[in-house]
Design goal:
Blueprint lengths: L1 H20 L2 H10 L4 E2 H5 L6 H14 L2 E6 L2 E6 L5 H33 L1
Antiparallel strand pairs: 1-3, 2-3
Helix pairs in contact: 1-4, 1-5
InterPro entries: ArsR-like_HTH, HTH_ArsR_DNA-bd_dom, WH-like_DNA-bd_sf, WH_DNA-bd_sf
GO molecular function: DNA-binding transcription factor activity
Protein name: ArsR family transcriptional regulator
Length: 119
Amino acid sequence: MIVSHMANRITPGLDTLFQALADPTRRAVIARLGRGPAPVKELAGPHDMALPSFLKHLDMLERSGLVRSRKSGRVRVCTLHPEAFAVADAWIAQQKQLWEGRIDRMAALAEELERKEME
């Protein structure tokens, strides 16, 4: 099946992406980075946790491809990499197409049954 083959091909990246998005701290970091690059210290500031715990969140975001970081002297600066959302976009579009097709077929069937009842 083509749909099954495509789903298997994008699942590893998709799993990591959705895992990264599943946490409110990581979503807050993504929202902040949507306004522009930021150093780790600034990103960690609003979150009530130790820096090593926060760094685990950043590591997950980097593994998902949503965030990239670079060292600038002693400061680690993070940037959003929105192209990584393409994996989720592709999967969501595929699911939407699949379900819209099913809904269209159900609507056609309901219309056909209604027509037969009226005969």
